[in-house]
Amino acid sequence: MNAEIIAVGSELLTPHRQDTNSLYLTEKLNDLGVEVRFKCIVGDDLEGLTAAAKLAMRRSDIIIFSGGLGPTEDDLTREAVAEALGLKLQRETQLLAKLEERFAKRGMKMSANNAKQADILTSAAMLPNSLGTAPGQWIAGKYDGQERLLMLLPGPPYELKALFENECIPRLRARIPAQYIATRTLKMAMMPESQVDARVAPIYKTYTDVETTILAGAGEIQLHLRCRKDSQTDAEARVEELAGKIEDEMGDAIFSRKGETIEQIVSYLLQMRGMTLATAESCTGGLLAERITSLSGSSRYFLGGAVVYSNELKTQFANVPKALINQHGAVSREVAASMAEGIRKRCLSSYGVGITGVAGPTGGTEQKPVGLVYIALAGEEGTQVVERNFPGDRKRIRQFATQQALEMIRRALL
């Protein structure tokens, strides 16, 4: 079975509020073996909500509305679903009495508009909401000859979660045939998405029963593999088989298959090798050190770092000769290498990293444009320097630069 989630509320269409309910619902539905095929956000508009309900009923087995069940004029989910399904709303006197009693216990008089929360769709089962005033509703039946399950849930996350777990999950378990989903996530760093897909597409296309999704962002490619079968063993075996073939093709370009971040992998490898790290950062302003120390226990392998923004501090803290800066400029292959070697020597670490570049949006020249970054890694085996021209704004360039540094450390430790 597949599902569709419709988040209701004009506030969710602004930059100030985020739909977190759909993430929770997706996780719980996946646990039941249900795949979420569609998600949408609809504002507080009766026509738009009605259209969304009709479309969802045509294409999805399970439809979940979150929000729009409150007492105000812009809470229209009940009315929209009633219109879409050709049902009526009936005011439940017992539920209305409970709402009045709830307000009375708080020493408050219930305003008239709260009464609409006692409106229940004909053929719907009322789902009690112990944490709020708006009950949920459950509808099971046929729509254009197809079996459909529809749920109306309150918008506040703490109300929705309690109601879904207590009322909806037991009902779903009783109706949904046993299904199992297995997933894998393979991660790679600093490779073009097109290049990865060109190599792995001939493999995953032969597995028509495994859904493969490629995601790219800020120097990381993720391959998400997903398979649904009648048993967990069959689903796991199938997705594992495909993951194995992709790993054979991509080799050590894959740094994670269990969801670890590249920071975690670098941490594992440094500790496993008994090695330490120090950093000298210019354009990244300490972002690499921040990413490394975001993990608990990083003091076991990260000795420290210096943010050497000025030329003077490059010399003072990272031992970069003034003559080298004068000759090649602060943004150069030679200075990056000297920063890595200097900070390694000063901190007595196994590896040293040096990063210098132009993060923008100003400061670039024709010879050294915005996005030009040099990343150096110094170790016992010598010093390597990578020159990259990263696209994007200041934040993106800095993220790319630190991702490149972490990938260089990872590969050196393999």
Description:
The protein has helices spanning 21-31, 46-59, 77-85, 93-105, 157-175, 193-204, 232-250, 262-273, 287-293, 311-318, 322-328, 333-347, 394-413, and strands at 2-8, 35-42, 62-66, 89-91, 119-121, 125-127, 136-143, 146-153, 180-189, 210-217, 220-229, 254-256, 277-281, 302-307, 351-357, 372-379, 382-389. The mean pLDDT is 95. β16 (372-379) and β17 (382-389) form a beta hairpin. It is α/β, with parallel strands linked by helices and 414 residues long. The protein is built from 13 helices and 17 strands. The strands form four sheets. A six-stranded mixed sheet has the order 2-1-3-8-7-6, with helices on both faces. Strands 14-13-15-16-17 form a five-stranded mixed sheet, sandwiched between helices. A four-stranded antiparallel sheet has the order 10-11-9-12.
